[in-house]
Amino acid sequence: MSKAAVFFGTGYEEIEALTVVDILRRAGVETTMVSITDEKSVTGSHDIKVEMDAHINEIDFKEIDVIVLPGGMAGTKNLEACESLMAQVDAFASQNKIVAAICAAPSILGHRGILRGRKACSYPTFESHLEGAQVQEQPAVTDGNIITGRGMGAAIPFGLAILEKLQGKEAAQKMAETIVY
């Protein structure tokens, strides 16, 4: 069974984070919601508090198949400031393990040089941060082990792109039908 970890910093975009969690869990992917804060519950950009499954210090990254970085302006800044998470993002990217980021969060990958020569997307006002990327205007873009999404309205295609990478096109299509997408 595949394992995903979705990382939550204060100010995360609720729809982007929770849509991915929902789609992956429906598909049987073991998905852990991970706090990068000192608290077990994390408040999103619209003051919605969500209880996490684990704290970042409790995660064995060797067992994780995909790192997911939701957007939200403050959430993205908080994720990028988390040194232990950034070390894992770099390691996953260099080991060709899956890293997925949506909305403002692909800017993190751009800042780290992970998008150079790759197709990627982000929230339109963050496209200048996709350093070296071939910027796309699609809801979700997969280029090798890197998956990016455009924004809240692209949360479902982004979640389905992650599922497709983990379980194949047929599984993603079946999920799209199941959720009436």
Question: Could you characterize the architecture of this molecule?
Answer:
The protein has 181 residues and is an alpha/beta fold. It has one domain: Rossmann fold. It contains 6 helices and 11 strands. The chain has helices spanning 14-26, 73-81, 83-94, 106-111, 155-167, 169-178; strands at 3-8, 30-35, 41-43, 49-51, 54-55, 66-69, 98-102, 119-120, 134-135, 140-143, 146-149. The longest helix is centred in the N-terminal third of the chain and has 13 residues, at 14-26.
Helical content (DSSP H or I, runs of 4+): 25-40%
What's the SSE pattern? Answer: EHEEEEEHHEHEEEEHH
- The geometry reads as globular
Mean pLDDT over all positions:
98
Number of domains: 1
Indicate the CATH topology.
Rossmann fold
Number of strands: 11
CATH superfamily: Class I glutamine amidotransferase (GATase) domain
Strand content: 15-25%
Question: In a few lines, what is going on in this structure?
Answer:
With 181 residues, the chain is of the alpha/beta class. It has 6 helices and 11 strands.
